[in-house]
Fold:
Amino acid sequence: MKKDFFTYQAQTTPHPLTLEISHAKGSYIFDIKNKKYLDFIAGVSACSLGHCHPKVVTAVKNQLDKYLHVMVYGEFIQKPAVELCKLLSENLPDNLTTTYLTNSGTEAIEGSIKLARRATGRQEIIYANKAYHGNTMGALSIMGLEERKDAFQPLIPKCKSIEFNNELDLSEITKQTAAVVLETIQGGAGFILPTNNYLKKVRMRCDKVGALLILDEIQPGFGRTGKFFGFEHFGISPDILVLGKGMGGGMPIGAFTASEKLMKLLTYNPKLGHITTFGGNPVIASAALATLKELTESDLIAETLQKEKLFRKLLKHSLIKEIRGKGLMLAILFDSPEIASEVILTCKDNGVLLFWLLFETKAVRITPPLTISETEIEEGCQIVLKVLDGIKNQS
Structure:
């Protein structure tokens, strides 16, 4: 199987982890030798309810017996998709009522950029340095790391970067700007939180010049930061909200949400302003609806902040320089990329799954399922600390 994996399946890095999966349940993943791994990654923040959550599995199985794909997006009324969009609206600010369901977060970014240009009649898109919004050509155009873009130029023109948390750069947002696209909490950059009311100041600047504010909540959303959406911590609301990852409970989905007035702009001049075949797929929407119900009807989101405190209490070590992030979106910072990589690889050998961040090479990701128990957190942190002691003793 490993040989076939490298021969027939396209790779993204020269050295993938190559864990051969047998099954997964709750907070654990099992390999084909039945070795279990405590999962502190959650599919990179995607498996918000852990692996094979019974309510998600039941929702999927029930839908499988009714119908699968029946029509391209937006033509037929399919109950799971309608109920999902309605429940989202009920849990969002009044200006975010109408949702377009997509297959992934990056596709939702593409749709939001198109909507902003259509709404404003402007072309310029402003994004943040070290931003990550996906890898399709539009999303790549607003990625804030130039060396990752060079091989794919030319990209979308009139995209300009500013420094996240730098108020002086807000003057770059002008009446030429269609939209400012920001991650509420910068992910790939190292789980950087906005400071000094930065997002409020961006919101005010956008309002002043007539630009739209697009917030990428693909990673912070759906309870991961201790609020339903990360922007709730900062007292603002975007014009367009981009969703993904944890929304599907382990199934592939994305979405962008705005006012009904804005969204209607995609229906004329031209018609089919944004189109997808499989967006709103009834099986995927059923999984997402079950996930959303569980998050809103349980105490999982509130418990996330308590679990953050436990991680911060337990993970104290001389090699750890800082823990960034909020809720269960945490990053451990070390002195070097080499230490970070050794921690990740050695923890894997010892039964705990950690992962890298995209741009911040000295960081180690901790984004477990929101369902993780305090006992599991303690178990995993003990292994991490043991690994850190071993690394320290070698030096």
About this structure: The mean pLDDT is 97. The chain has two domains: 2-53+299-394, 55-297. The longest strand covers residues 177-183. DSSP finds twelve helices and 15 strands in the chain.
